[in-house]
UniProtKB/TrEMBL annotation:
It comes from Caproicibacterium amylolyticum. Residues 551-773 form the Histidine kinase domain. Residues 797-918 form the Response regulatory domain. The modification 4-aspartylphosphate is found at D849. InterPro entries: CheY-like_superfamily, HATPase_C_sf, HATPase_dom, His_kinase_dom, HisK_dim/P_dom, HisK_dim/P_sf, Sig_transdc_His_kin-like_C, Sig_transdc_resp-reg_receiver. This is Circadian input-output histidine kinase CikA. The lineage of its organism: Bacteria, Bacillati, Bacillota, Clostridia, Eubacteriales. The keyword Transmembrane helix applies. It is an enzyme of class 2 (transferase). Its EC number is 2.7.13.3. It catalyses: ATP + protein L-histidine = ADP + protein N-phospho-L-histidine. May play the central regulatory role in sporulation. It may be an element of the effector pathway responsible for the activation of sporulation genes in response to nutritional stress. Spo0A may act in concert with spo0H (a sigma factor) to control the expression of some genes that are critical to the sporulation process. The chain crosses the membrane at residues 507-530. Keywords: Kinase, Membrane, Phosphoprotein, Transferase, Transmembrane, Transmembrane helix, Two-component regulatory system.
Length: 924
């Protein structure tokens, strides 16, 4: 290597060493959070101790946090990724927890010399702390009237950091107060103030408070977040986020001030003694209303604002309506008004018009009004004497056209006499919604310069009015004033002729629409006439169908009652085994026949929307055992293996319709039994999954391993009367309504049902429902069903009203087998007569058929209840009828009956019902 090359390499090595040293030094000087753009900071949980102050921080009983500090930390987390947990604490307790390391940060803390020696502080303040002394609105104390304040009792939070500051401040004015440090939060102090236990209270801010007034205010100071010395990494991350927030989102801080630190409801201004004396001495204050704001909605808003001013100031304010802005200013010059509102808050403008200005109470932008598509701005139409005229005159490049009213200025733009017009948003909003202008002109928001509105006070009046108005405005929530002047204008009505003259194309469209509408109306009249005729036919057919089903129900159930009753009696009385077997088969066939009748009637009721759900608390285990008891005999007959699986948490009690849920399960299980092979198996799976609140998602499925079904049939399986012809099934049984009923009932319960099946492999039906978990109801002692030979009803006297001879014979025989003393009436009229002629409490119960000659059962029950004897109101009347619809049950109960038994009568149910209603007699 040559000498020249060696010098070059040495030079490169030296440069690289210097660069490496510079980079290492730079990395050492960088904050820790900068290592990865603050991304690594967020993998930690930071505990923040906060003092509960109005508007600053609040944590309710449900651990929900709110307030200025909470929102700031939530915004910080978007920069650092940290998760903040908030601990409500007090001043002394918070510093103690910080020193112990229980919390990582504490707010708010003031940067005193003592605190700076002990803690690290955020570089940016969270808010300004303004300690204030508050009294009740109606108290006689005035702002900074230290003579009246001297000696009063002031309530404070025990370890409040502002206590010493208050004492020092008042001592500077030769004023001393008694501190009562018995309180832990602001609400306790305010309650004590309302009760008169204290004269005033000390808090950190008079903003966002309610029902109070300030009587002293100490110098404000910044408050910060503090961390324990040495926790540099945490404080660097907080400072980094605060700096980014100040730089990137300045509106965030303005929003916090408006949300949490603006005046609260019913806060009264802090008037000095001189201001209070001026208010007391003034009879009234006349405010001229700027005549530019002449519409009704604007006038109402200004009236409401004036009422709020009167409430805050105590002055008797009278509004003077003027014809224009110039007229309003003339009233100031003439001395007929003390102030003008609203006026633009421009110092030069106010000086030129002989006014002082209050603080701003409303901000809004201006409108630039031009023709659609026009870009010219050479001539500007403005209202004479308005602020827009004053502001426009400063622009020497534009020709100003002065008008008496804003409407005149806008019309000049509409007619092409001016390129543009200018006005405030509130004035322009009215014209922007008027069809005459909105269709031709463009109303553009000029937000380059926000216009501030204030109250202009005449320099001929006392200047103390400025201070009074400023304090009153400061005690009104900003959002309240803004919403007050957020007027929603309605378009002005114009004549039809004018509208069509302005919109000729619309006129043509309307004419065409009228012709088309006329044609459609003629068509609809003809169509509706045909539809009404068709609907009447359908209604007539529906009524005929309902009447037919009602009659069929009665006519079928009446002989079925005889079959079931005679089979029951024959089975009990027959001694021969073979004959006894015949009676058992008759009973079994009658039960099956009854199920077919019930399916047809149930489907009819569902189609006519007459089925109602009656949910109740149901013990699931007991309910399921009852279902198993019903289907078990059919399973045993085919020697089926019944497998039950339960998944999920055990839920004891659910809220549903017991009867219809039982109908769903029994229909599905019966379907599985029907299509299963002998000695096969059926699997029932039940799964519960708790959701939000008390809601429970329930899924149950019934799986059989029988003949299955084709894919084509699965698409219509839930349709009424559908059955698949399957050679593997030797005999088609049933109506094909069971699954249709299940589908409709599941839909009524807002659930779903699905099916999976494969020929030769079996089928699986799955039902999903959302039910409510409820507490287990107290168990009621149910009447026991007496056995056929128990004679628990012996001695009970019953009046049987029944017109059918065979049903009468069967009912009497069934009752006599239990020792019941039975007397028979052939119709309702005779039943009423027999009861009326009997002695008091002679009959223990009445069994009443519904359809009878002379007088039906409903009429007879009503007649008995109306008899003038004590037992007429209390004797149990039990309906025994072939009328089995829900509306039939309701009619029976409405007529005064106690219960309703549908035919065919099951003997055990009859005995149980009688025992229930005659329990006093049975237990004697």
């Amino acid at each position: 290597m040559g000498k020249k090359q060696g010098m070059l390499v040495t030079k490169y090595r030296l440069t690289a060493a210097v660069l490496a040293a510079f980079l290492a030094f730079t990395c050492m000087r960088m904050p820790l959070y900068a290592e990865s753009g603050a991304s690594n900071i967020g993998r930690q949980k930071v505990k923040v101790g906060c003092i509960e102050l109005n508007g600053f921080f609040k944590k309710d009983r449900k651990e929900n946090c709110s307030g200025l500090a909470y929102d700031i930390f939530r915004e910080i987390s978007t920069y650092t990724g940290q998760e903040f947990e908030f601990v409500k604490t007090s001043q002394s307790e918070g510093l103690k927890l910080l020193n112990e390391g229980t919390i990582d940060l504490f707010v708010p803390v003031q940067k005193t010399a003592e605190n700076q020696n002990a803690y690290m502080f955020s570089t940016e303040s969270f808010a300004q702390n303004t300690p204030v002394l508050l009294a009740q609105p109606g108290s006689s104390y005035c702002y900074n009237d230290f003579d009246s304040i001297n000696g009063i009792t002031v309530g404070t939070i025990g370890d409040c950091q502002d206590n010493e500051k208050l004492l020092q401040y008042l001592q500077q004015h030769n004023c001393r107060v008694k501190l009562k440090k018995d309180y832990t939060d602001f609400a306790q102090m305010q309650e004590a103030l309302n009760k008169g236990e204290i004269n005033a209270l000390l808090t950190s801010s008079n903003r966002s408070l309610s029902n109070c007034k300030v009587i002293a205010q100490m110098p404000c100071g910044d408050i910060y977040a503090a961390a324990k010395k040495g926790n540099t990494r945490l404080m660097d991350s907080i400072n980094y986020a605060l700096q980014q927030m100040k730089m990137n989102t300045p509106h965030f801080w303005e929003g916090l001030d408006a949300q949490y630190l603006s005046a609260g409801e019913n806060v009264m201004p802090a008037y000095t003694k001189e201001e209070a004396q001026f208010i007391a001495a003034s009879s009234k204050c006349v405010i001229a209303v700027n005549g530019e704001f002449q519409h009704d909605d604007e006038w109402k808003s200004i009236q409401t604002f004036a009422e709020r001013l009167q409430q805050k100031t105590g002055l008797q304010i009278k509004l003077l309506k003027t014809t224009g802005l110039t007229a309003a200013y003339d009233s100031l010059s003439a001395g007929s008004a003390n102030a003008v509102l609203p006026v633009e808050r421009d110092a030069d403008w106010a000086q030129a018009n002989g006014m002082w200005l209050s603080q701003s109470f409303l901000s809004m932008w201006n409108y630039q009004i031009t023709k659609n598509g026009s870009t010219n701005r050479n001539t500007l139409a403005v209202v004479k004497g308005s602020y827009q005229a004053y502001d426009g005159s400063k622009n020497t490049q534009k020709q100003i056209l002065y008008c008496d009213t804003l409407e005149q200025a806008i019309n000049m733009v509409l007619n092409g006499q001016a390129d543009a017009a200018s006005c405030s948003r509130m004035e322009g909003d009215y014209f922007a919604v008027q069809t005459k202008y909105s269709s031709k002109l463009l109303f553009t928001a000029d937000d380059s310069k926000t216009q501030e509105y204030a109250i202009g006070i005449s320099k001929k009046s006392d200047s103390i009015l400025v201070s009074i108005f400023n304090k009153a405005i400061g005690c009104m929530p900003v959002s309240q004033i803004s919403s007050l002047f957020a007027i929603q204008y309605q378009p002005q009505k114009i004549s039809t002729i004018d509208y069509f003259y302005q919109n000729p194309q619309t006129f043509v469209v309307v004419c065409v629409a009228v012709l088309v509408t006329a044609f459609l109306l003629v068509f609809l009249v003809v169509f509706n006439a045909a539809a009404k005729k068709k609907n009447k036919q359908l209604e007539s057919a529906s009524r005929a169908k309902s009447d037919f089903l009602a009659r069929m129900s009665h006519d079928l159930r009446t002989p079925m009652n005889a079959i079931v009753g005679l089979a029951h009696l024959g089975e009990e009385e027959c001694k021969e085994t073979a004959a006894k077997s015949y009676f058992e088969k008759i009973k079994s066939s009658s039960v099956y026949l009854l199920s077919l009748i019930n399916d047809i009637l149930d489907m009819s009721r569902i189609e006519n929307k007459k089925v109602e759900l009656h949910p109740e608390p149901v013990n699931w285990e007991e309910f399921w055992q009852a279902v198993c008891t019903i289907v078990r005999p059919a399973m045993d007959e085919k020697n089926l293996n019944f497998i039950v699986e339960e998944k999920g948490p055990k839920i004891e009690c659910l809220y549903f319709d017991r009867i219809h849920m039982q109908q769903i399960l029994i229909n599905l299980l019966s379907n599985a039994i029907k299509f299963s092979r002998s000695s096969g198996r059926i699997r029932f799976t039940y799964e519960a999954c708790k959701q939000e609140g008390k809601q429970v998602h329930v899924r149950f499925s019934v799986r059989d391993y029988g003949i299955g079904m084709s894919e084509a049939f699965m698409h219509r399986i839930f349709a009424p009367f559908e059955q698949e012809h399957n050679k593997r099934l030797p005999e088609q049984t049933g109506t094909g309504l069971g699954l249709a009923i299940v589908k409709n009932l599941v839909d009524m319960m807002h659930g779903t049902i699905s099916v999976n099946s494969e020929l030769g492999e079996g089928s699986e039906f799955t039902v999903e429902l959302t039910l409510r978990e409820v507490q287990m109801p107290e168990k009621k002692v149910s009447a026991s069903i007496p056995a056929a030979d128990s004679h628990l009803l012996a001695g009970v006297r019953v009046l049987l009203a029944e017109d059918h001879p065979l049903n009468t014979e069967i009912a009497c025989k069934l009752l006599q087998k239990q020792g019941v003393l039975t007397e028979h009436a052939e119709n309702g009229k005779l039943a009423v007569q027999m009861f009326q002629d009997s002695e008091q409490y002679y009959y223990d119960a009445i069994l009443m058929d519904i359809r009878m000659p002379m007088m039906n059962g409903l009429e007879a029950a009503q007649a008995i209840r109306k008899l003038n004897r004590e037992d007429a109101k209390t004797v149990p009347i039990i309906a025994m009828s072939a009328n089995a619809f829900d509306e039939d049950v309701r009619e029976s109960l409405k007529a005064g009956m106690n219960a309703h038994l549908a035919k065919p009568i099951v003997p055990a149910q009859l005995y149980a019902e009688l025992e229930k209603w005659t329990s006093d007699k049975v237990n004697q």
